[in-house]
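Hello K.,

You asked for the raw outputs rather than the summary table, so here they are, unedited. I folded two proteins back to back in the same session to keep the settings identical. This is the first:
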Amino acid sequence: MLTIATGNKAVATAVKDAKPRVIPAYPITPQTEVVEEIANFVSSGELDARYIPVESEHSAMAACIGAAATGVRTFTATSSHGLVYMCEMLHMAAGSRMPIVMANANRAIGPGWNVWAEHTDSLSMRDTGWLQVYVSSVQEAYDATLMAFKIAEDDSVLLPVMINLDAFILTHITQSLETVEVGDFIPPTNTPHAIDMNKPGGYGTLTPPTEHFKFRWDIERAQRDSVAVIEETQKDFAERFGREYGMVEKYRYDDADVVVVAMGTLGKEMEVAVDKLREEGIKAGSLRIRWFRPFPNLDFEGKDVVVIDRDYSFGFGGIVANEISAKTGCRLFSVIAGLGGQEVTYDDIADFVKQRKAGGEFWFGVNK
């Protein structure tokens, strides 16, 4: 069915279509519309689920873990300080191998207080064991949420998945949305380690030094195995519903001399910048990273690379730029732009490409 929706409404609609049984919910700007819409679906009978208004984001994730441990499908949503408040439970969710799905509205961390887009919140949680996907349109928010349930619940993965969408730029923008008849695309949940009253077992028990590292390795193994599951899920989605996705999204990439890289909504702005640069005789291309965990295999051989980070690791640098540099060994031009919702236009991105200097770092809007 074709309709129009905000990014938040698209996520909520996908959740309704995926039919989770438990929805712990706590509001936070600009995510609140997600849980409000789901509450409407539950109250109208469109979604048969237990909707639990909890007292905090920490409790929301704790409730998700408890519900997922019984073998039922779960979902929640948060943003920024709410995500940070969940930090302990994020580690618990991944360490317990609970296939929880959560939407995160990427918003800056204060102070100063700011409710606009930045990726530092989710990227600061990159080592919790969660899979992370970053979307750039209302349609992609819907599609990625549906696929997240299928990926998380796969026996080869059994890790939680975080869908990230830029605050206000995407959460509140209105675009066209085509929903689907899910059918058997998402199979019934079958968590192999779910609580079974007939087979009592221990959960979250103390693990000695002789065992703990094995649990850590198992999360890493699942992250590695998730690549094949993600790719197969995206292929199945394309065959059923006609929309194709990859670990990354490339635009005018193959013959490019210089490639600009970013995540989220900046990925679409990059494409306009690339067209502008091409008209000026500069053979530019773009690459939008969709899946940050697991991190995609990248090869920029023979190309200059400009990375735009809507985040920062203090004392270290742009997180995406440093991940790319560590994985590929390439020397790149690192641009810090868009923090706290700072406007970044396609003209700005074109300027970043023109002023690039390998090995350099540039803070947009800062004189230093």
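The second followed immediately with the same parameters:
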Amino acid sequence: MSRWFTKRIFLITLFIIVFILICLFILPVSVPIIIALITAMLFEPLVKIVEKKFKWKRKISVMSIYIFFVGLLAALLYYTVNSLIGKIIQFTKEAPHYLNKLSGVWIDLQSKMSNYTAGMPPEFVRAIQDEFDKMITSIRSSLTSLLSSEKIMVLAGEIPNFLVSLIVFMIALFLFMLELPNLKQMVFRHLTDDTAKKARYMMSRLNSVIFGFMKAQLLVSFIILAVTFIGLLIITPKYAVVMSLIIWIIDVIPILGSIIILAPWSLYQLISGDVGMGAKLAVLAVILLIIRRTVEPKVMGNQIGLSPLPTLIAMFIGLKLFGFLGFFIGPLVVILFNTAREAGIIKLNFKL
């Protein structure tokens, strides 16, 4: 037993156990800090460019980039939240009018159904009416559940947690941006020369991949913005600018994306009687979903060095396992594996 239970195996087993415990208990509550670290790593090439171009010290470069980022984030949040609040207030004012209009549409629809189904078997007519009644009841219950006081209270209760997470993220981001070189030195201090060489290769490879990832996301988002703006300019020119920007920001949410905005908007127009506009918004939502699901894996695969199929699989599995962050973690794990294999850390020279 002592032959195989060596000190190395004991340390590896201990490391695996600690890693599993961290993943289960620490990572779920450390999301703002992890995002801050990843964001600081993304900003690191920009910090070095500013240092080199303007001959500034690191602290000044970090402060300038941080202030610019905070200002841009604050402007986007203010513009988006202000627009959404305005739309919500307008919706609550006009809701009684649209509900009355919906009742009139339902009465008119019933009268038309009576004319269209004249002469048909009573059982068939009754079945159609029952299905329509079920559909209206389902829509009414869904709207009631969505606008219930319990849901609103739960959403309001999450606001303090979001604000705390946002404050922790902003503070951690600034500190990580300042201390990132020291953190790297601290990690490399515990590595051998050979391992440090492989780690530096992996970091340089990851920097290029992360830059490619950001470039791919930016390119896809601009395509979505352009298609959304053109579509809304044709459908509803009055709200084209505001809603295209809101959809552009919301579209970063994996799988759903623009559907979160366009689907309720389309349903609202259909219920209010504007079938033409509702159908056009639904078509636009489908077009944006197709563009996101087909163009994104291709563009991202080209930019980060992965083929579209592994990229799509990694994004989907990551999303299912880790939620929103898994959309980025999935491809990153595949990239880490490939980079470690290229650096010689992982060797797969075997045959079955």
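The chain has two domains: 26-183, 195-345.

Happy to rerun anything if the numbers look odd on your end.

Regards,
P.
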